[in-house]
């Protein structure tokens, strides 16, 4: 099979290539990279060359000069683009902060700004896929993943699937804390109910051989203190919630503390990544061969993982990330598992994965074509959302409000509709005033 990565010069592409090299089934035998920045593409190409050294049968890598060349003949298209680069993320975060509301890449006003900029580009990609590779599956990791997947689905239907590494990370950390080992996952003995939207979901059931583990975990402060989400939200709040939230819900549940932490920081996450990645690509472009480029990449990757969501950890007491969470990746393994499950003749069919797909009847209160993030069973015909327990009123309320924001953002981006953009921005629960929303949009239009 042939996999094309759009955003092939992205910093995390080597994680995907590492997963392909480690795959014993060799689900992918050719990787095509496409990026609008040739310097970044050349640097990442050097890192991949180093990864392939000594491998008995490395996956072939080629670079495409145009989008159409990259898409033609692809079996899978992995979309991981960043429209506006990290400099765009800096603006998305700083403009809201100047108005006293949270700026973050995918959450709040920053997420709406990023969606408005990204959706038109994502739609053009979807249209070219439909023309040049109509049978390809598109795996979307482009943020904000939920709304971008929803926009692309208007063109590609069910052949676009959004992925994220946060939910599976939460499930595995919670299972370890509850005493479940990795072998139980491999044997298919673990089941779970995770439902929500991208970066807005809850783990509401976790079973081993049919035995429910979550209530015991939620009642055990020591066990909760052993993993990231337990420390992030605190035992008292998790016991009250009766569920384990996705880490990004910290921005909603502890908005005052997180906003204070972000505003007190010397630089935003976007500013950190803009400087870090800019420095990496500049140094790596002048590095002496693939070995030096790879060493620089690995050191930069480690620093990136160590500082992930640092403002939220600082707001909830501060701690260092666990060693098992510093290896990076996660989404790359989800992508590989998804590709194997979708491919006829592989042993991946019937896998259960947490994906961003069309709702159908999963959450009856949402439209059937709305994109939700939930547990799916995946085979060659695509993912099928599994039935889930009814959502609690607080969970459903947040989902309904955020889905309205997502859909208004898509409408605004597609139709260039100022009223829809204002509605998307002002209705977000982390934006506290329509007047503030209007000023954020005006400044973004001026500075963009």
Automatic annotation (TrEMBL):
Instruction: Tell me the superkingdom of the source.
Output: Bacteria
The protein in question is named 6-phospho-beta-glucosidase
| GO molecular-function term, one example from the UniProt record | 6-phospho-beta-glucosidase activity
PROSITE patterns given for it?
Answer: GLYCOSYL_HYDROL_F4 (PS01324)
Q: Which cofactor does it need?
A: NAD(+)
UniProt source species: Streptomyces catenulae
| Manganese in keyword set | yes
Classification lineage:
Bacteria, Bacillati, Actinomycetota, Actinomycetes, Kitasatosporales
The protein's matches in SUPFAM superfamilies, at most eight in alphabetical order, are given as:
LDH C-terminal domain-like, NAD(P)-binding Rossmann-fold domains
* Family of this protein: Belongs to the glycosyl hydrolase 4 family.
